[in-house]
Design goal:
- By secondary structure, this protein is of the alpha/beta class.
- It has 24 helices and twelve strands.
- It folds into three domains: 6-170, 3-Layer(aba) Sandwich (Rossmann fold); 177-340, Arc Repressor Mutant, subunit A, CATH 1.10.10; 347-462, Trna Endonuclease, Chain: A, domain 1 (3-Layer(aba) Sandwich).
- Strand 10, helix 22 and strand 11 (429-436) form a beta-alpha-beta unit.
- The radius of gyration is 26 Å and the shape is globular.
Length: 463
């Protein structure tokens, strides 16, 4: 079953229906579903699909030729019988001839491996795009998992291919609304917990056995030495980054609540400027994001947040239990996480609620340019305060509170949100959104119905 990617498929089909040469660059982290997307799009179409590997230029040339042979495009056998390409120039000449006979898609998956093995390939391809391919209506898709290579060696101004792309796709993990489609039989609460634990990476979600409970899947996949996700974060970091021990240390601090640069530097015992350089690389992979209080211009209050739920879960719970898991006591270790899962889900639930507001943008009482969190000092109480959601438009604002707990959200929660909203006196017209896992008290429902500026959103609305 193929899930999601509707926008990407529409754009790929637009490119395919074009009557000119189109060059699409597609990139994103490993496991995010790039190849699956391309395969789904290419069904029923004439395609040369070549996947490069980390091997020699000659090896990749031979497998590229095999991919051309498998394509069964018009005159393939005739042309290959006449001439077996001996280099990449001859191979691209052959593809040029084939593409003139019928609409052709050329996919080079894991492009960085080919470009590194044959260092002149990007320059060669650039010349063919400029001259040989321009008289065809081919669709060329260059796809890669190495984020740094695709951004610096393919998309940047110093790349020979700069200016040749006609479209680019950065494939991101799914948001919660698509992620929960992988577990259609789960309860609404377990669907959100699935997203909070596995994140939005399609490959990880596809490993869930819908015949088993969420708890059983978590135990089997995370807390088992043979489980797919037992070593996954470490493997990904080793593949993408040097000095994995430093990145592991930084992610561990952030996963356990150390979100300020000064805290991170102190915990890993490194200078702040050095830590910041490591964090920037994690940000380029989409693992970490930098947040500042919504509506504040100063960046001095910025926090670093783990952007990947699976990494957050692994570094919070699996890493601390590696000894138990290695001794075959993974189920015992896994059982302990469920007593505090609501606390763990807090930040993820906030992100889900923010996504809900974007998805229902036209129904909001205001039209904000951005939606996020706010935090700052309360001078009267001499303490830090947080507002889970803030969205503003001029002097109007929506304030949101997100409760992932086992008790109903009540009138006290609304009053507390109103109290915190007074810290932002620049907003004179205020609306209040309360999101709750367990529903709302009758008193709060009555107040919301009578007020006109209070909105209650439960799991049924979110899902």
């Amino acid at each position: 079953m193929f899930i999601g990617r509707d926008q990407e498929l529409r754009e790929l089909n637009r490119l395919y229906e074009s009557e000119r040469l189109e060059v699409a660059i597609m990139y994103g982290r490993r496991r995010v579903g790039k190849t699956e997307l391309i395969n789904y799009f290419c069904k029923g179409k004439k395609v040369i699909f070549f996947t490069a590997i980390e091997n020699s230029a000659d090896y990749n040339l031979n497998t590229f030729i095999e991919a051309v042979h498998r394509s069964r495009l018009a005159h393939t056998d005739e042309l290959l019988a006449r001439m077996i390409p001996r280099d990449y120039l001859q191979l691209l000449d052959l593809i040029t001839v084939m593409a003139k006979h019928e609409k052709t898609i050329l996919v080079i998956d894991e492009y960085p491996y080919l470009a590194k093995a044959e260092k002149s390939f990007s320059s060669i391809l650039q010349k063919y795009i400029d001259y040989n391919f321009r008289n065809t209506n081919m669709l060329i898709i260059l796809c890669g998992s190495s984020m740094s290579f695709m951004e610096n060696q393919v998309l940047s101004a110093k790349s020979p291919l700069y200016g040749r792309r006609t479209a680019q796709f950065k494939i991101e993990p799914f948001n919660y609304s698509d992620a929960v489609k992988f577990v259609p039989n789960y309860s609404k609460e377990d669907k959100l917990l699935t997203y909070g634990i596995f994140g939005g990476t399609p490959y990880y979600l596809s490993q869930i056995n819908n015949k088993n409970t969420l708890q059983e899947n978590v135990s089997d996949l995370f807390f088992n030495t043979k489980g797919l996700l037992f070593e996954e974060p470490g493997s990904l970091i080793k593949q993408e980054l040097r000095e994995p021990h430093m990145y592991n240390a930084i992610i561990t601090v952030i996963a356990n609540g150390g979100t300020r640069l000064s805290e991170i530097a102190d915990k890993v015992n490194k200078p702040a400027n050095l830590c910041e350089s490591y964090i920037k690389k994690l940000m380029s992979l989409g693992l970490v994001t930098k947040e500042k209080p919504m509506g504040e211009k100063s960046g001095t209050k910025s926090l670093y947040i783990l952007n990947d739920n699976m990494f957050k879960f692994w570094f919070r719970y699996v890493q601390d239990n590696l000894s138990l898991i290695s001794k075959g006591m993974g189920k015992k270790a896994a059982a302990g996480i469920w007593t505090e899962i609501n606390s763990f889900m807090g930040r993820t639930f906030e992100s889900v609620c923010i996504q809900y507001m974007w998805d229902n943008y036209d129904a909001l009482p205001i039209q904000p340019k951005d939606i996020g969190r706010w935090w700052g000092s309360n001078p009267k109480e001499k303490q830090e305060e947080e507002i889970d959601i803030l969205a503003a438009d001029g002097g109007k604002a929506v304030f949101g509170e997100c409760k992932f707990k086992n008790t109903k959200t009540g009138i006290d929660d609304l009053e507390n949100l109103k109290r915190k909203s007074e810290l932002l006196s620049r907003y004179t017209t205020k609306y209040y959104y309360l999101f709750s896992k367990s529903g709302f008290t009758e008193q709060l429902k009555k107040t919301a119905k009578e007020s006109g500026n209070v909105m209650l959103v439960g799991l049924g609305d979110l899902l």
